[in-house]
TrEMBL record:
The keyword Transmembrane helix applies. It comes from the Bacteria. Keywords: Membrane, Transmembrane, Transmembrane helix. GO terms for molecular function: sugar transmembrane transporter activity. Pfam families: PQ-loop. InterPro entries: PQ-loop_rpt, SemiSWEET. One of its GO terms (cellular component) is membrane. The chain crosses the membrane at residues 12-30, 37-56, 62-86. This is Glutathione synthetase. It is found in: Membrane. It is a multi-pass membrane protein.
Length: 103
């Protein structure tokens, strides 16, 4: 028996919310060119969990789960990659950019 339409809508809305929540972190790390304060272990464990959710979604053919976790995995891996690429660099000073924009 197929699920009601609103169940899929609920899944897509939940997927959107949990996925979009990572965008500010990715943007901040990219803008500052620093992932100082970002826990590597947390993002590794999170990425493994996302891979498992993605696999679960594929096995169930649950598109909200598949789409959200594929995108979220990309965002989480982006933070991990930037943490590695930007290691040892001085973070950008956002106050200089803010002062320039306020002129």
């Amino acid at each position: 028996m197929p699920l009601p339409y609103w169940v899929d809508v609920l899944g897509y809305v939940a997927a959107f919310c949990t996925t979009i929540a990572f965008v500010p972190q990715v943007w901040l790390v990219w803008r500052r060119r620093s992932a100082e304060g970002v826990s590597t272990i947390m993002y590794i464990v999170l990425s493994v969990g996302i891979i498992l959710w993605l696999t679960y979604g594929v096995l169930l053919q649950a598109w909200p789960v598949i789409i959200a976790n594929a995108i979220t995995l990309g965002l989480a891996l982006a933070v991990l990659a930037m943490k590695w690429v930007f290691r040892g660099q001085m973070p950008r000073d956002d106050s200089l950019e803010v002062a320039r924009l306020n002129r």
